[in-house]
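Please decode residue identities from the backbone states below.
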């Protein structure tokens, strides 16, 4: 059963993390996940779960200042980008984004909308949204392949 092209609803960080774990467990080499959502919506919580799903046990933090954090201890390497501070998409060429996208691991990119034109056509987009009418901890996680 595919975990892509579905909508998941969570009611707390643990459930958001569990959803990320499920996607990480099904991730394949060469996939690119673009995380889209407002500040504080749970992108890093989702990413921690995703890393667990790949078998990564070391602590996962958002690489806001370093832009890229590489985790190689899981069943696949995880290339975790946070492009919040990128001002021009061309900056990603200096980091070697293409090499990671074409690599043998999985790319997970927070704030991916800032570099949308650099993403592959088959990127998997993960929208994480709040709905305060459903509670402070409620999240709607929409996963679709572009």
């Amino acid at each position: 059963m595919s975990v892509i092209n579905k909508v998941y609803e969570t009611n707390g960080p643990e459930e958001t993390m569990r959803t990320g774990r499920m996607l990480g467990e099904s991730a394949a080499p060469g996939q690119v996940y673009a995380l889209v959502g407002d500040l504080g919506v749970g992108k890093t919580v989702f990413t921690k779960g995703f890393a667990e799903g790949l078998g990564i046990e070391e602590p996962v933090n958002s690489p806001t200042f370093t832009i890229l954090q590489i985790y190689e201890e899981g069943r696949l390497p995880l290339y975790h980008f946070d492009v919040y501070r990128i001002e021009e998409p061309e900056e990603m060429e200096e980091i070697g984004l293409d090499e990671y996208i074409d690599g043998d691991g999985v790319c997970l990119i927070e704030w991916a909308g800032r570099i949308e034109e650099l993403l592959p056509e088959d990127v998997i987009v993960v929208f994480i949204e709040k709905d305060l009418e459903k509670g402070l901890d409620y999240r709607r996680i929409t996963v679709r392949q572009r």
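Observation: The helical segments are 13-26, 43-53, 91-95, 97-101.
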